[in-house]
Amino acid sequence: MRNFYFNLFTLLFLVVLSLTVSFFKPVNLGLDLKGGISMLLEPDMDYALSQEYERYAKDIEEKVRTAGVNVLDIVVQKDGIKVETLDQKDAQKVFQIIQKDFPRFVVVSTNKGEPLIRLKEEEINKLKESIVGQTVEVLRKRIDELGVVQPVITKVGQDRVLVELPGVLDIEKAKSIIGRTALLELKLVVDSGSKEELEKKLTKDTELLPSKNPNEWFLVEKLPVITGADLKTAYTSTDEFGAPAVTFELTDRGAKLFGDATEKNIGKRLAIVLDKKVMSAPVIRSRISDRGQITGQFTPEEAKELAIVLRAGALPTAVKFLQETVVGPSLGRDAIQQSIKGGIVAFVLLVILLLARYKIAGITANLSIILNALLLWAGLVLIGATLTLPGIAGILLNMGIAVDSNVLIFERVKEELRAGSTFRKAVELGYRRSLSVVWDTHITLLIAALILFQFGSGPVKGFATTLTIGSIASFISNVYFAKFFLDLLVKLKLLKI
């Protein structure tokens, strides 16, 4: 009797808890049920590789010249860093320096016999993996700032990223935030004017950048004073004329670098460069340390979006949109309605089948299936999982698996009754002798679901999530509490099977 009351209390507690959770907290709906946007992105690896060569070119040049090697020039190309030497001996010295001080690189020869420095193949693969990982993290931060509920941002294959935004239907706005590189750089201005005039003054240590004014270009130093990596935060504000602007604050390291640079260059202009375009170029009047402001005739919405992407950080490279899909909410409503109809039909057929086959015992199986569905739904809500159309298919499949467990147990109980056992003994022996098979079934299913969840993406994960929770709920309801229901019928002398 003590076990009976404990089981009864546990059952009532789980039912009340599940109903409360399901009533007060709605389940998150996925893209295929709620509507939204799906995009497949690919980071621009060629650009990222050329940027990596740009970063190392200056260090390599300093090492080579310090070692006394006679070089004519060091040029960054798409496929590596070319070192123009006077003779073969100097080329050999370059090879030795790279081998000793830059182990990530390898030296090959051009058609003219000049050293061409490239990243090793394994280093290129590491760079690609790092870029995809950084892209996923930056996109996740940006989308979290937008407040999208349960987005999907995941790696697909070796170098692609899938982004799903349930409830978001403005694809242009989403692309402007997701695909924006948001590379912020503060660079000292050498000169400004027309493009034709400035091209004559261009050197390898400077670069020519456009501004928001099509008639004005800026010649700036290539090496930035600080970059977006030195930002602590960014937020919308207004400039001295009351127009929308973005104010940024710097980290301790960034504030020191910025303070030292502005102190040494009072009277010069400082270009605020965003995605290789000069937004503004104010004159440095005094030492500036921990903050600055970006102006540029923004609308309030543009200022807000810029603050979001700056807070989330710059993408490691530009991204290309390979595929864009907009799913309307009406499709999701139709899918839900069809799924509900299918679920009701399936449940009614199960009820009829179980009652016809197992009489009164079939009632306990139906109660177990209802309890299983309730526990599964509450589990989805509690862990904050997203319900997708494949997830609904997983729920319906779980109903079939739940019935399978009851069929195994009931058939074993009937065998014990045919062997002459009493109802109480038949129930005990039937459960004991079929439990190992039921355990194996549920554990195998759980392992398969976890593997799908680990290695799958998008819809596959939705299916695996409901299957995982459903396997646990099925064992609790269709094994543990189904026996409790049968024991209750035995006590009341109502069991027929």
TrEMBL record:
Indicate the segments forming the Protein export membrane protein SecD/SecF C-terminal domain, all copies. Answer: 319-487
> What's a single GO MF annotation on this record?
protein-transporting ATPase activity
Keywords of this entry: Cell membrane, Membrane, Protein transport, Translocation, Transmembrane, Transmembrane helix, Transport
Tell me yes or no: is Transmembrane helix among this UniProt entry's keywords.
yes
The chain positions of domain SecDF P1 head subdomain read 207-316
Q: Where in the cell is it found?
A: Cell membrane
Which Pfam families does the annotation name? Answer: Sec_GG, SecD_1st, SecD_SecF_C, SecDF_P1_head
> Which parts of the sequence belong to the Protein translocase subunit SecDF P1 domain?
133-190
Tell me one GO biological process term.
protein targeting
The record's Gene3D superfamilies line, in alphabetical order, gives: 3.30.1360.200, 3.30.70.3400, Multidrug efflux transporter AcrB transmembrane domain
Q: Name one GO cellular component term.
A: plasma membrane
Which coarse location class applies to the principal site listed for this UniProt protein?
Answer: membrane
- Protein's UniProt keywords contain NADP: no
Q: According to its record, how does it sit in the membrane?
A: Multi-pass membrane protein
Q: What does this protein do?
A: Part of the Sec protein translocase complex. Interacts with the SecYEG preprotein conducting channel. SecDF uses the proton motive force (PMF) to complete protein translocation after the ATP-dependent function of SecA.
Task: Please give the NCBIfam families that the UniProt record associates with this protein.
Answer: 2A0604s01 (TIGR00916), secD (TIGR01129)
Task: Give the family this protein belongs to, as stated in its UniProt record.
Answer: Belongs to the SecD/SecF family. SecD subfamily.
HAMAP family, A to Z: SecD_B
Q: What is this protein called?
A: Protein translocase subunit SecD
